[in-house]
Amino acid sequence: MPAATPDPGSAPATTPHPARDPSPHSRLIVPVLAFCGVVVAVMQTLVVPLLPHVPDLTGASPGAAGWLVTITLLTGAVFTPVLGRVGDMYGKRRVLLASLGVLTAGSVLCAAGSDIGILITGRALQGAALAVIPLGISIIRDELPAERVLSSIALMSSTLGIGAAIGLPVAAVVIENFDWHAMFWASAALGLLDLILVLWIVPESPPRAPGRFDALGTLGLSAALVGLLLAITQGADRGWTSARTLGLLGVSLVVGLLWGRHELRTASPMVDLRVSARPAVLLTNVAALLIGFAFYANSLVTGQMVQEPTSTGYGLGASIVVSGLCLLPGGLAMVALSPVSARISAAYGPRTALALAAAVMAVGYVVRFFTSHSLWLIVAGATVVASGTAIAYSALPALVMRAVPVSETGAANGLNTLMRSVGQACCSAVVASVLAHVTFLVDGRAAPTLHAYLLIFLIAAGAALAALVATLFLPSDGSASGVAGGTVTVTASASAARESA
Questions:
Q1: Do residues 206 and 143 lie in contact, with contact meaning Cβ atoms separated by under 8 Å?
Q2: Whole-model pTM?
């Protein structure tokens, strides 16, 4: 018999957790969790500069080398919502430590060998650690006083973009100057440091979600996601109308429908679809998918565009290190803007902050459309897009937390992070398809035309504008029932911010 659930239109019922004595290291909780988030995010992009060299270094085919990125996407997508739910039920710190342990083990595996199978296995373990970011957001909500929650989750959520922006230039420098295994040994050392810091600083959060773990729901969600993401990531190479691609999409659709039926009938679902169907949650996740798409286009094409040879008529012939450094100002802007986003959310509400962010990202791509021949203007446009991403990634968890009960924070933020990952996967497929098909001959080889890059900028701007539209249909900030911090609403925070202004 289905479990009784709140009316989809009602505000989430929240039970404030009892007051607790602050940890002696409470001021260090956010820096430690943010550091963990940056390390995990760096792992997602660490191998991108290495990919062109993997066939020569390992003897693997280019297709096999591509799995070093694809496998992290798959494991991250599968494990992020699952581990968020496990954290809600059995302890967020415990699951956070397990995730960091898996990250460290994967890094050691990659550092110790050169066989492509071992590298793919290690990268799969690294991808599974993406759950660290939503788990960190949930711990912040449980542990911090209400007045610090918005700014802290803004920083934690932004680490996903900060790490991606930092990881590319750092990896490029290592590849240019050291043995490539060194970057994996360094990531293993950082993972071990994260484990020590979490054990020392971060307390276990007391809120627990009732019920039993939904093993069947976990398997169903995993199968549906794997089918969908394999179809998206492999579609450009195998053909969007190929039997394999269409078969994967069909299997994903059927499994997804069966999974949804199971989730609606079980007493303790992996994902509470009734809560997820509320406009406040559903539209936030749609916006997350579109923002993830728009953000990733910036990361994917900037480095490749400036590395194109000057013989193309638009390329700058930049080195791999210079191309990576083009994204560094955007990473620094994300660090600087995460507290600004929190102030916007506190004063005017996270819906307003997300709408502003989507608009800034769209403007950034307009700038990029008209400034594609100058290195400094390319960097400026990329930084504008990154600035919008920082505000968006900071506002998304605040929107999620005001719409779900405290006991479902980990799972809900995990699902939102998953939607960003799906958006990135879609972006990767679109970018690969455009750059492979809108080409011309240069020095005897096919190269993307300038119009290919400009088309990608227009598509990404369209995704940002679609995110803006989805945001405008969200319930207004004034009418939402927020639960940030467990006891204080976003609306109350906004009132306090205006009074202190």
A1: no
A2: 0.79
